[in-house]
Amino acid sequence: MEKITSLAKRRGFVFQSSEIYGGQNGAWDYGPLGIELKNRIAGAWWKEMTQLHDDIVGLDAAILMHPRTWEASGHVENFTDPLVDCKKCKSRFRADMIPEENLAAKKCPECGGELTDTRKFNLMFRTHIGPAEDTASVIYLRPETAQGIYVNYKNIIQSNRMKIPFGIAQIGKAFRNEIVTKNFIFRTCEFEQMEMQFFVKPGSDDEWFNEWRKRRWAYYEKLGVKMDHLRWHQHGPDELAHYAKDAYDIQYLFPMGWRELEGVHNRTNYDLTRHTQYSGKDMQYIDQDNNNERYIPYIIETSAGLTRNVLMILCDAYDEEYVPSEKKSGSSEGSADDWRTVLRFHPSLAPVTAAVLPLMKKDGLAELAQDIRRELKEDFAVDYDQAGAIGRRYRRQDEAGTPFCVTVDYQSKEDGTVTLRFRDSMEQVRVPKQELAARLRREIKDYKRMK
Ligand code: GAP
Predict the structure, then answer these.
(1) Residue numbers of the chain with a pLDDT score lower than 70
(2) CA separation for the pair 144, 241 (Å, rounded)
(3) CA of 261 to the centre of ligand 1 (A)
(4) Residue 44 contacts residue 169 (beta carbons within 8 Å)
(5) In what order do the strands lie in the sheet with 92-94?
(6) Is 191 in a helix, a strand, or coil?
(7) 96-123, pLDDT tens digit by residue?
(8) What is the pLDDT of residue 135?
């Protein structure tokens, strides 16, 4: 994880928030490569959920919601972690994350000092809206995006003529006052979720639950993730959230071990029933195709962390490789044995798709390379680099996860061909420059991970 954190900072994926002030715990900033990666991961999920599913539509609800929402959802009452403090060293722990014997003996796992009794700590951030800071002005930063979907479910049925079964997808920020925020961007106080709520007829929920488990597994397969680094974990009775009848996590083998990446939950009709009670509005679905049968739908939820997916994709792509000698197009320099760090992103997720590199700045090669870059950038995210030895430039692109390098050399001037170099195999082929865009499109579509 240290290597990934350091690469992420060095190459502008992720920076510590407010670093010049010593950093803000639980918050991170996404740099030029990081925001591109995050946007592409979000785009892949959005395409999967909306474009590829006729029965799912999108939504972007506000972060600030009526405070009654969180009473209805059960978060005011139940969204708590058990907390203990050490009276001696003042360290703070989640009681369920320290060894049981320490908890039983009330002994600090760090200094051996005495621990306080366990108390409940609500994870929601509370603030005030308006000028008066009294109980009437309390408002919460949403701890999950899901509730914005539930309160809009009737609006969407009416405006978009949706019929059950159907889903609503949303990507957005969520906030939790996490007690423990280690492991880089894994668990943070400000993060993003990609959630989809699928509304089904009661009685068909188990079937849909299994169907969504299958679909979410297939999604990661399609994304090119190492499938032996993924597994299912079913929640035991003591792990189930207050709203869930059944829940499975997709866990990923992060450097610190198996951890939750995404949850698939059967939330039953809990949320909509509670919103009916708290708002006084009828949240029943009227089935016009079935004698106006009325019921409160069950909800199958797929809930993935976007920022956690960024970490997963970084970990999954990270590789160090011994490279005995890499042939450099048209160049005799720098063939020394070497190690390279390479991010093996799927080309459709890579922040930069292709880098255009003139072998030399002189003799019109830079101008020719700039022309090629201009043409490619209409369709692809393209970088241009003319600084330093070509071997070093390849290494820089490998480290940024750029799947294709286009090298412009003296032969390019003569016959209009360029060298296309593949990040994973380091193979190089010559391609006529007018065929480059079509070739890149094909390579992205047919990409198969080698390692
Ligand atoms: N609406 C259901 C829900 O929020 P969750 O299991 O609490 O369920 C879903 O969260 C996903 O959101 C997790 O699988 C994880 O990927 C992400 N997530 C949750 N808390 C997070 C945090 N503090 N930092 C980063 N990601 C988080």
Answers:
(1) 325-337
(2) 13
(3) 8
(4) no
(5) 92-94, 80-85, 119-122
(6) strand
(7) 889 999 999 999 999 999 999 999 999 9
(8) 87
User: Whose alpha carbon is nearest atom 19 of ligand 1?
Assistant: 305
Rounded Cα–Cα distance for residues 400 and 98 (Å):
37
pLDDT at position 182? 84
Phi/psi at 311 (5° precision) = -65, -40
Look up residue 186 and give its two tokens: 């894994």
For residue 192 and ligand 1, the question of a CB distance below 6 A is answered with no
Nearest CA to ligand 1 atom 25: 187
Which pLDDT score is estimated for 137?
94
Residue 75 Cα to ligand 1 midpoint, Å, equals 14
Amino acid letter, 120: K
Tens digits of residue pLDDT in 327-363: 444 444 444 457 899 999 999 999 999 999 999 888 8
**Cβ neighbours of residue 366 closer than 8 Å, sequence gap 6 or more:** 358, 360, 386
Q: Global pTM?
A: 0.94
How many Å lie between the centroid of ligand 1 and the Cα of residue 305? Answer: 6
- The reply to whether ligand 1 has any atom less than 6 angstroms from the CB of 166 is no
Chain centroid to CA 283: 31
